[in-house]
Amino acid sequence: MDKISKREFIQKGVLCMGGILCPNILDAGNSFAAEKLWKWSREAIFYTVTPRGVKCGICPNECTLRPGETSQCNNRINFNNKLYSIAYGNPCAVHVDPIEKKPLLHFLPQSTAYSIATAGCNMACLNCQNWDISQTSPKKTRNYDLMPEKVVNECLRNQCQSIAYTYSEPISFYEYVYDTSVIARSKGIKNVFISNGFINPEPLKKLAPYLDAANINLKSFSDTIYQKLNAGKLQPILNTLKTLKEYNVWLEITNLIVPSWTDDFDMIKRMCDWLMTNGFAEYPLHFSRFHPSYKLTQLPETPLQILIKARTIAEKAGMKYVYIGNVPSAGMENTKCPGCKKIVVERKGFTVISNNIDKGKCKYCGTKVNGNWG
Amino acid sequence: MFKIFPLSNLIKNSLFNNQKILVSKETTHGNITITENAGQYNIFDNGNLFFSTDNNILSEEYVHYAMLQHKNPKSVLLVSGGMSGMIYEILKYPGIENINYIEPNPQLIPLLSKYIAPTIDNRVHFYNGDPRKYIKNAKEKYDIVIMAIADPTSLQINRLYTLEFIQALKECISPEGIVLYGITSAGNYMGKEKKEIAAAMFYNLKKNFRFIAIIPGERDYYIASDSTVSIKISELSAGWEDKNLYVNPYYMDDESISQRNDFILNSIKNHRTINTDERPTLVFSHSMQFISKFSQTKGWIILLPLILLLTPLFLIKSYARGMFVAGLTASSIEITLIFIFQLIFGYIYSAIGVIIAVFMGGLAIGAIVANKFTTFKNTLPMIILLLAISIAIVPVCFRLMNNIDKFAGIIIILINILLPSFLTGFLFTTYSNYLSVEKINAPTLIYASDLFGSAFGVIAVTVYLLPVWGISNTCYILAGINLFPLFTNYRR
Q1: In chain B, which end has fewer C-beta atoms inside a 10 angstrom radius, N or C?
Q2: What is the C-alpha to C-alpha distance for residues B47 and B30, in angstroms, rounded to an integer?
Q3: How many CA atoms lie within 13 A of B23 on its CB side?
Q4: Which run of H or of E encompasses B33?
């Protein structure tokens, strides 16, 4: 029998362990898969060819990809030095939802939205509720064959007034959103953009004329927290809010309060002050309750008292429509007239109990209540 | 020392950031920590969030989705969740005569009572202990059983989700009785693991009940009965507008519920997963789902233990392979027996020390006794064979333990642990004595192989063998692997 020395034993052992424990070797199939185009690949609208590869221009991540490489959002690949979206017409999630679920409370109340999403997201929030589609590739999800024309037809068949680009991150499937929006607009269907707002100005300005409403998730008011919690940046989101307002897209803003991350009242006050200074007082602000999810399952739900205090801060700062989401409690979802302070829209959940807005004005005092009331 | 370097406190403060730790106590079932933040109490079980107060949605969904299905519910069994407001919700039904609330961790209610006042009503009866044992011995018939337990992410919780448990549960409900389980919501997209979890939930219940309804909400609720069950919660909750904050026609949208119900049913129609005591598929699916949060490629986690199992066998010399295999099977069977203990008795935290002590003791005694035997060639095959037999009889003992009292069960478990460990210790000395005559470093290599085998065995059995193959098959596979050295030609 051959002898084996202790040194040989350790050497072979380490080699063996190293080989086995390197998941990248076993993950090699992914990069191979990414090099191929498929039925749902479309050349991207915004990219630049550079000596280092193609540079995606959709979002501030601005991924530079060598041939065969995939973008951070898992949705774009460099194929022969051209950038392709690989999620065109193949959503993995398709549902009909009440518009209030988005949440959009000042936009076509009691209507339904034909809601679609493909896999992929340009952020990586630790608390993502849709992580199993946002943090993966369209090639790994089970998808529907739903080209833009078909989306519009299905929306009409389901008697929905709008198409919502939602759940994961519509910025990552921009080309699909854009083409669908153009067709939807021509058929009189509204386009609703539920997004993190992490998009570059140029693509946003191209899309904005076709958008009717947006809910932008302003996740915090700290660049550091944005980087650590979401793998994003604050300033581009603030720019997005301003641009959407300039283009008269109906806008509602959601701030999810994550305990120990974004429950700092000083930060909430700074956020509200910024919104006031930049002319967002008339736009609804939703403070949303966090539920344990994804990588933050050890965190408890946001205490109700924190949400109530955040609402008080926002109202004191001058925000006119402040709501608390994900909490069934009297008064949290009602709309008060900014003039006479009476309840003009009484809601319970997704149900409107009473609506005292007539032609966009309070029935009691005639004050304008901002929104698209249908 | 701990006062000077309060490491434990530092870790807890970091874990429960921004929360005031009110109490943190070790119990037979693990650590319970209660924290407070802005008037909200948060209860953690071994560091995992168990529940928080101020969550009306969850309490109302669990209770009313089940209760509204029954025309006149009188008797209710509530498994866990009683301290989070569910008893209050059940008492809203005027016909209620009896609520039996059982909390698996006996120390939870006394600890929580200091902060959350339990609902006192002469119709409410508190029980602490193992729900499996309680169900097995239950004499009464319940109209409603609400399983307000955590997801089956661990073997300990999974024992309340298995086919065997649901069969036992059916025995203690009335002919029109309702059983409700809630698991983490499938959300907007169902990947492979979510489908497997949903399928296991559905088909486990379907095997025992005629009608199953799935109501998606804060969690996904699986409602089972031999009487018809409805997903039209808005319709069922008519008249509850003023009594419930959440479960009432304002919040419930039957059309949305119906769509999501169809979505789940369509997603699982090609999956036929069953979760049993022997094969806890739900734990495996949850493990894979957890892993997918950190790695997009999950295949490696299945391949890893297999490669780990096999690769060293080709790298080490034949005399060390025998000990590698012995270490692998011994550690694997130890883990399997720990699992069986947990399955039968409902806890492991306080017993694990005894089990490991018996295992190590068995190794030591075996190693000492082996010194009296010197004929390697005659002894070795016999010991290997005995070790294989001692592993192969574990499934038989497992079935036996289901039907005997606790004391006898513990004795059988300990014998099952002692035998393989004794024989493994015996093998260690036998190999060492035989080979060290000419190879001075043989004991070192044998010991290293033993530890390598043990490490690989622990990974393989927990990640792959038990969840995929179940208890019996795992034992037979291990017994078979154990025979492998018999075919090795040992030469000095």
Answers
A1: N
A2: 9
A3: 16
A4: strand B30-37
Tokens of A135: 């943090």
Residues B256-288 pLDDT 10s: 899 999 999 999 988 888 999 888 889 888 888
A353 touches chain B (CB under 8 A): yes
Which of B64, B189, B310 should one mutate to test binding to chain A, selecting the residue with the greatest count of A CBs within 10 A?
B189
CA B274 from centroid of its chain's CA atoms: 15
Give Cβ neighbours of residue B466 (< 8 Å, ≥ 6 apart).
Answer: B280, B335, B336, B339, B474
Please identify which residue in the block is written with the tokens 């029998």. Answer: A1
Token duo for residue B26: 């070790």
Map out the domains of chain B with their CATH numbers: 51-285 (3.40.50.150), 298-487 (1.20.1250)
Q: Give the highest mean pLDDT range of A27-31, A85-89, B256-260.
A: A85-89
SS3 for B171-233 is HCEEEEEEEEEEEECCCCCCCHHHHHHHHHHHHHHHCCCCEEEEEECCEEEEEEECCCCCCCH
CA distance A309 to A321: 15
Question: How far apart, in whole angstroms, are the C-alpha atoms of residue B140 and residue B380?
Answer: 56
* pTM of the predicted structure, to 2 decimals: 0.82
pLDDT digits (tens, 9 = 90+) for B42-97: 999 888 898 998 888 999 999 999 999 999 999 999 999 999 899 999 999 999 99
Quote the percentage of chain B above a pLDDT of 70.
91
Partners of residue A303 in chain B, C-beta under 8 Å? 37-40, 54
